[in-house]
């Protein structure tokens, strides 16, 4: 049926193809944009009976080696105790500076505020903060199931950072 020489050549051919495929996958591994990170600190403050400010300090790392992440926008989403998701309105950098100066009880400003067009280069790590107002009483924000920070790249991909645990 099949002679021994044919089987040896077939095995060697398959091994060469497998090695070539492995090199292709290893060569493109760092070319795919992948943002990972954690929310380091969450601070909240009631602005009135029905609204609150949330300040998130976070760290992100661009796992890609050849592609940079360019911020299009950032969205803060609070998941309430009953599972409802409430999206916040992001506060601009200049307004965040005023809020931090006016509301001293929020504590110090640990990181620069994330802005549109901020870049995380390949292999880089960046610490930033985002502030948002949410149409929820502070008590509801404190009883939340979690907070998600959605970071949108200018070219389309979206990455999410989730709060690691309940405050």
Give a structural overview:
- With 167 residues, the protein is α+β, with helices and mostly antiparallel strands.
- 24% of the residues lie in helices and 38% in strands.
- It has 3 helices and 9 strands, in the order αβββββαββαββ.
- The protein has helices spanning 4-28, 93-102, 138-142, and strands at residues 35-46, 52-62, 69-79, 85-87, 89-90, 119-120, 125-134, 146-153, 158-162.
- Strand 1 and strand 2 (52-62) form a beta hairpin.
- The longest helix has 25 residues, at 4-28.
- It is elongated and about 85 Å long.
Give descriptors for this structure.
38% strand, five-stranded antiparallel beta sheet, 167 residues, four-stranded antiparallel beta sheet, alpha+beta
Topology:
Layout: H1 4-28, E1 35-46, E2 52-62, E3 69-79, E4 85-87, E5 89-90, H2 93-102, E6 119-120, E7 125-134, H3 138-142, E8 146-153, E9 158-162
Residue windows where pLDDT falls under 50 for at least 5 positions: none
Shape: elongated
Radius of gyration: 23 Å
The first-to-last residue Cα distance is 70 Å
Brief sketch in words of this structure:
The chain is of the alpha+beta class and 167 residues long. The chain has helices at 4-28, 93-102, 138-142; strands at 35-46, 52-62, 69-79, 85-87, 89-90, 119-120, 125-134, 146-153, 158-162. 24% of the residues lie in helices and 38% in strands.
């Amino acid at each position: 049926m099949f002679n021994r020489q044919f089987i040896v050549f077939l095995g060697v051919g398959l091994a060469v193809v497998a090695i070539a495929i492995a090199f292709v996958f290893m060569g493109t591994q760092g070319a795919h944009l992948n943002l990972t990170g954690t929310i380091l600190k969450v601070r909240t403050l009631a602005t009135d009976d029905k609204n609150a400010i949330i300040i998130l300090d976070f760290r992100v790392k661009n796992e890609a080696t050849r592609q940079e992440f360019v911020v299009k926008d950032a969205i803060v989403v609070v998941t309430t105790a009953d599972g409802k998701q409430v999206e916040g309105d992001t506060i601009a950098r200049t307004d965040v500076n005023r809020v931090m100066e006016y509301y001293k009880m929020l504590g110090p400003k640990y990181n620069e505020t994330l802005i549109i067009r901020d870049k995380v280069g390949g292999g880089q790590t960046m610490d930033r903060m985002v502030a948002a107002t949410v149409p929820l009483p502070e008590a509801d924000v404190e009883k939340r199931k979690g907070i998600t920070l959605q970071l949108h790249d200018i070219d389309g991909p979206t990455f999410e950072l989730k709060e690691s645990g309940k405050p």
